[in-house]
Amino acid sequence: GQDICMCGEAIQFSDVAKVFTKVTGVPASVKTLTEAEYRLGMQFAPKFIQDEFLAMFQWFQEYGYYGKDKDWTTGKQLTGLNTFEQWLKKNGWKGQ
Asked: What are the boundaries of each domain within the chain?
């Protein structure tokens, strides 16, 4: 009768870039798009699809994937999933 949230870690995009650069030696950066830039990049998709994706990303930004104030400790104890840094080191992925 309880929700158990699981993921290797909840990590900000800016931290993904830092960890990627640290582990691979390949420079990485993050750019947050304005709504206009996002829509320009998604112009191949109908407006209602753009709107749905935008609403989803805004939800994630405000509430996170599972919602606000979720307890991640049980999921981490049960799974032993990798952090992003551990995953990069184990797989040797360099962004190609």
From this structure: 13-90
